[in-house]
Amino acid sequence: MIGILCAMREELEPILEYVEVKEVIDYGRNKYYLARFQNKDLVLAYSKIGKVNSATTATIMIEKFNARKVLFSGVAGAVDEDLKIGDLIIATKTCQHDIDLTVFGYEPGFVPESKVYFDCDKGLNDIAKSVAKKLDIKLKEGIIASGDQFIHNKEKKEWIKKTFNASAIEMEGGAVGNVCWTLDVPFFMLRAISDTAEEGAGVDFDKFLEESSKVSAKFLVEMLKEINEK
Ligand code: SAH
Fold first, then answer.
1. Which ligand 1 atom is the nearest neighbour of the CA of 8?
2. Where are the domains of the chain?
């Protein structure tokens, strides 16, 4: 069983168009779509925005629906200058930029008995890179930082870039990475850029959400073809 997670309805809908939905289960104020795609069993859902919602949904996918891999598809704000709206990025690792226990001497993003960065699955990232190569699609790899804030400020963005060496910013990946590390489930995260996370990002986001969601969805489906998992 492969779990496919998004944050928003707009991110999930274009993926649902490619799969054969067998059943829709209402659970925990959410809908879980059980589906088939080329002999593979999938559970798909959008969690609603933010770290708590995405962590809850990822946990339910793993614990209740037995997902053995979690793949995230969605949109993000660009941090790296060479990322333009519509470009794709996969996370090498994710972190939570809004965790701050620095007054106790810890580095930003660090929680005692946990860690700052959660690694994404190398095998799944290799599949993504080979699909990108085959289809001649530009695919960047980098750290993606999450927090429960929509970033639309250059100064804040630069702080996140400098502190976490992040290439993109969003609101879920660090939490899902944490869940997958805790439960020992491989995690993959793909994002298409919707905005630059600077002043005016809110306007760009609304304009490009649908288009960028489709870019991410389409690539994820191409990747699914290459994943061996029943
Ligand atoms: N306009 C939406 C809210 C969007 S929140 C509404 O009214 O419902 C932004 C979503 O896209 C989050 O799920 C987050 O993961 C991602 N995202 C894209 N750009 C972002 C940015 N600049 N900062 C933080 N999250 C961003």
1. 13
2. 2-224
Do 157 and 169 form a contact (C-beta atoms < 8 A)? yes
Minimum CA distance residue for ligand 1 atom 9: 150
Q: How far is the CA of 197 from the centre of ligand 1 (A)?
A: 9
118 near 196, Cβ under 8 Å? no
Give strand pairing partners of 25: 32
Burial state string for 153-181 with b = 16 or more CB within 10 A and e = fewer than 16? eeebbeebbeebebbbbbbbbbbbbbbbb
Domain 2-224 falls under CATH 3.30.70.1790: no
Beta strand 20-27 with 187-195 is unpaired
Catalytic residues: 11, 195
Q: Could you identify the atom of ligand 1 that is nearest to the CA of residue 196?
A: 22
How does pLDDT run across 143-165, given as a tens digit for each residue?
999 999 999 999 999 999 999 99
In the reported structure, the alpha carbon of residue 216 is separated from the centroid of ligand 1 by a whole-number distance in angstroms of 15
For residue 204, what are its two tokens?
A: 């760009």
In angstroms, the CA 220 to CA 226 distance is: 10
- pTM value surpassing 0.85: yes
